Amino acid sequence: MTSVRVVQTLTAGVDNIRDRIPEGVTLCNGRGIHDASTAELALTLTLASLRGIPAFVRAQGRHEWTPGWRPALADKRVLVVGYGAVGRAVHARLTPFEADVVPVARTARDGVHGIDELPALLPEADVVILIVPLTTETRGLVDSSFLSRMKDGALLVNVARGPVVVTDDLVAALATDRISAAVDVVDPEPLPADHPLWQAPNLLISPHVGGASSAMWPRAHRLVRDQLRRFAAGEPLANVMVGEY
């Protein structure tokens, strides 16, 4: 396939294929395809965890009526760590729930904190939603030090990439019963049946389905059509990957 000039993915992350792209071939990612779907799942995992939905499902299986008091999303401070297209979509969906949203990006800008400010931001956050790309900078970002800075009772939501979180450190943190987590991505993937993460308390796991919804295909079709038009017209392509971003 020496005539290949462009590779267009339907994924936002390209860490699994970047090293396989020959020199001189343009790599474009699927940024914009999964924004709505992934943002919906981030909100779903957050609400389900805060309102205790997994416990209600287990109680339903036992035919038990288990009323109780649960935290609301309203008035919670939510860090959105990663403020690209998906991060902004998450923010837009959190706002109607009356949450106090704090955006965090690789570099600070007006209204957005820099990732280097996390040590100061984490102790004040009730919910931390991860939606960063997997890069050398973000791999292992959430380690024991990060988790120890989270406030008691805080919720970690990962809809980014599994290796952004050090899995053993997350297992250890959950075992203390001090924080909870909801993850759509894990490391390793798929998670082996005997992995201790399955048995961790206060954890909700979904099987990497952030983009797997009916919202994906109309957006994918629009992107591919537009890219083909650009290519045929000799115009610059969208979503060209440069470096790790």
List the helices and strands and how they pair.
Elements: E1 6-8, E2 26-28, H1 35-50, H2 53-61, E3 77-81, H3 85-94, E4 100-105, E5 113-114, H4 118-121, E6 127-130, H5 144-149, E7 155-158, H6 167-175, E8 180-183, E9 203-205, H7 216-233
Parallel strand pairs: 1-2, 3-4, 3-6, 4-5, 6-7, 7-8, 8-9
Helix pairs in contact: 1-3
How would you portray this structure in words?
It is globular, with a radius of gyration of 19 Å. It has two domains: 6-33 and 213-233, no CATH class; 39-205, NAD(P)-binding Rossmann-like Domain (Rossmann fold), CATH 3.40.50. The protein starts with 5 loop residues before the first strand and ends in a 12-residue tail after the last helix. The strands form two sheets. It has a seven-stranded parallel beta sheet, with helices on one face. With 245 residues, the protein is of the alpha/beta class. Strand 7 (155-158), helix 6 and strand 8 (180-183) form a beta-alpha-beta unit. The protein has helices spanning 35-50, 53-61, 85-94, 118-121, 144-149, 167-175, 216-233, and strands at residues 6-8, 26-28, 77-81, 100-105, 113-114, 127-130, 155-158, 180-183, 203-205. Helix content is 29%, strand content 14%. The protein has seven helices and nine strands, in the order ββααβαββαβαβαββα.
